[in-house]
């Protein structure tokens, strides 16, 4: 049988055709046939397409699995379900799946992303209980690289923070690991007053909420530390101003989310009073400008939407920039705050993959054909 005429076309012709397509269509073309996949995955084409603006997506984190308490059949089913990255495209209002079957790890657990690259924990096939590895990959190019090995304790208790392809931090209450492209991690003492809640890495500084209150009453404060100070074993500093007043007392269970530019967002339930048993009237989003150190209100959830969260004892917050997602147990959908168009919009995200109890976690994923540096 004669070969199809399409195989006679030179690569330059394919490059021109694919470069005329939107990024979403290029991603679809990779799945058409092996020829298209080879051309789009070639280093030359990746270099051409890498300057394209990314797709701003929201990725889900799969739940942790405890290997000792599951049968082989359940583990196989869970591994199959988690062999892909589930992402939501807010602009197209649809769910997408990026296969992770190119990774030689069981139970890949994506935790963070930056510049088109996804960072995930992977179980070593030889010794899954002690050899956790932090892996960086690009689901679009199917390239990956294993960072220097870490113990499983870091994957269980550490928060992974990234802000560029070569700046990675794993932070716990007692210590921090820092990786900047070398062959090893640098370890520093963190000496935080409590377990850091929702830490974020912005520019050259790390910010986290810590509870400095008593066992019967939480009192959250904002702590900050530059990477330079962290390396020199300097203590974290409490970031506060007299002008802020009771900004940390009006929110119940506050969390930090990285904002746009040099901003961070603080999200929590808006207390109806300062009593210990105070109920919440809605969910409030506050914004801190790190240049001026001034707070302002970025948004608050509509009362009708918040009523769906009132029956849950806790909710999860994730996202970044101008998009934040909210989830709660047994809701089957997520709420989305979207300010990308310049005007705040609240809407529901339906059809969420049902591999957890509804307390979805996730991160922002800017999908692009970024080449993975050695």
From TrEMBL:
Listed InterPro entries: F-box-like_dom_sf (IPR036047), F-box_dom (IPR001810), Kelch-typ_b-propeller (IPR015915), KIB1-4_b-propeller (IPR005174)
Organism: Cucurbita maxima (Pumpkin)
Name of the protein in question: SKP1-interacting partner 15-like
Pfam family, one: Beta-prop_KIB1-4
F-box domain span: 9-48
Higher taxonomy: Eukaryota, Viridiplantae, Streptophyta, Embryophyta, Tracheophyta
Transmembrane segments: none
PANTHER family noted in UniProt: SKP1-INTERACTING PARTNER 15 (PTHR47719)
